[in-house]
Amino acid sequence: MSNFSKTLLDWYSKNKRELPWRETKDPYSIWLSEIILQQTRIAQGLPYYKKFISHYPSVFELAEADEQEILRLWQGLGYYSRARNMHAAAKTIVRDYKGKFPQSYDEIIKLKGIGDYTASAIASICFGEPTAVVDGNVYRVLARNFGIDLPINSTDGIKYFKKLATEVKDESRIADYNQAIMEFGALQCKPKSPDCPGCPLNTGCIAFEENRVSKLPVKLKKGKVKIRHFNYLVFLDNKGNTLLNKRLGKGIWQHLYEFPMIETDRLLEPDEVYASLAQENKNPKDIVLWQEEPVVHKLSHQHLVTRFLIVEMEEQFDEGIPMENVEDYPTPVLVSEFLDTFKNSYF
């Protein structure tokens, strides 16, 4: 065992957080936690994990669940494709493996929504397969300790760090080691202001020695962020019913529900919306701008500049949804946050 891996294991034995998925080797539970925690902090993801385990205690219940219900439980976590892929993978496990989780990296990685990191984590933690995990925390620990400035999101960088992670791992205690290096990155070798003087690896850490901790790891800059303008029309008929549309395209928020929306190159004013609806032979009684200041919802590669317009109609909608029932539908967090303020102040 190298001094690097021994130090991490010693640190982990004293500092690891008590988390429900660390109390089991059940691959279903660990898989669920890994999918929920992708691009999500533990503090945010833990309540979702408990909620999903409660609703779907085994892969059979998850496979049989209605997608709309799953998306509703997922609401607020973002990256909804994770939930849809998780549902699809559960169906595959039930159909092709009779509900028994596949037990090797090569089989696990075939499941929808599972990449190298998740397959490595499940294979090592649940089945003892000596596969090294590489996530954001691991990249940071390795880049700083070994002084590597190869971009972690480049093709060469991904290959290099996977090779290095494989070389320094402790195969004899692979489950603990993989969790140790991830936990170390999350708690000790943090992205900002890590406690380097108190770090047990500091005597061999090149970044600390060369004063490059804040500069590592290196990441290639993302492309330009796209700006989009969403004008949501919150229709209300004379009975207080509204309208929702289900997003069916391959873009963001697939299969989630939202109010009718007009996407434009700039935000629309109420009179412009009125004129647009009049062309469709719709004559609103009134159109009120919910708030002057737009809501800017930031996604990884795009920013959504958004406003909500309340459109009051004289007639009653044939397929209207009572406003108090809208919360039963899975909606993007942008819409759900609007609903929280709208229901408390409009009615």
TrEMBL record:
It comes from the Bacteria. One of its GO terms (molecular function) is oxidized purine DNA binding. It is an enzyme of class 3 (hydrolase). Its cofactor is [4Fe-4S] cluster. Its EC number is 3.2.2.31. InterPro entries: A/G_AdeGlyc_MutY, DNA_glycosylase, HhH-GPD_domain, HhH_base_excis_C, HhH_motif, MIG/MutY, MutY_C, NUDIX_hydrolase-like_dom_sf. Binds 1 [4Fe-4S] cluster. Residues 36-187 form the HhH-GPD domain. PANTHER family: ADENINE DNA GLYCOSYLASE. This is Adenine DNA glycosylase. It comes from Muriicola soli. The gene is mutY.
